[in-house]
Structure formats: C-alpha cells, structure tokens
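Work Package 4 report. The design task specified in the project plan requires that, given a folded chain encoded as structure tokens, an amino acid be chosen for each position. We show below one input record used in the internal validation round.
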C-alpha cells in the first residue's frame, strides 16, 4: 500500500500532529462541523490513520496548518 501524504507529510503524522496542536491549544478550532469531521477519522488495522476516513475539510485544515507552521515539519 502506498503511503498517502498531504503537502509531503505522511497523512498519519499530519493528522496526529493536528490533533496534538488542537489539544495543546497551538491551533484553536472554532468550527463544530470540522470537529465532527475530525472525530470521524479512524485508525486502520495497523494503528495508522485510514486515509479513506479523512474528509476534504480535514485535509484542507491540515494543509493550512502545515503551511502556517512550517517549523513543525522541517525535521520530518
């Protein structure tokens, strides 16, 4: 299976970092629909994010986060 990326970042790493940023108030999310979309992201049998469960809204949020915080991704 090919690893899916968002702006060159592994989708699993990107989603986990996004969730960490929200939990640690590095990113403030004020959109109930996006919270619901993020809550629908599931892990597959190998414990990694299942890309099929990542909505276009969550992908857009991840792209925005990666673009605005390049320092978080410089070492990845």
């Amino acid at each position: 299976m090919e690893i899916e990326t968002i702006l060159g970042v592994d989708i699993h790493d990107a989603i986990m970092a996004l969730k960490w940023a929200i939990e640690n108030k590095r990113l403030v999310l004020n959109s109930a629909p996006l919270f619901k979309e993020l809550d629908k992201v599931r892990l597959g049998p190998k414990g990694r994010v299942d890309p099929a469960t990542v909505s276009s809204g969550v992908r857009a949020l991840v792209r925005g986060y990666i673009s605005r915080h390049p320092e978080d991704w410089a070492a990845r």
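The mean pLDDT is 89. Validation will be extended to a larger panel in the next phase.
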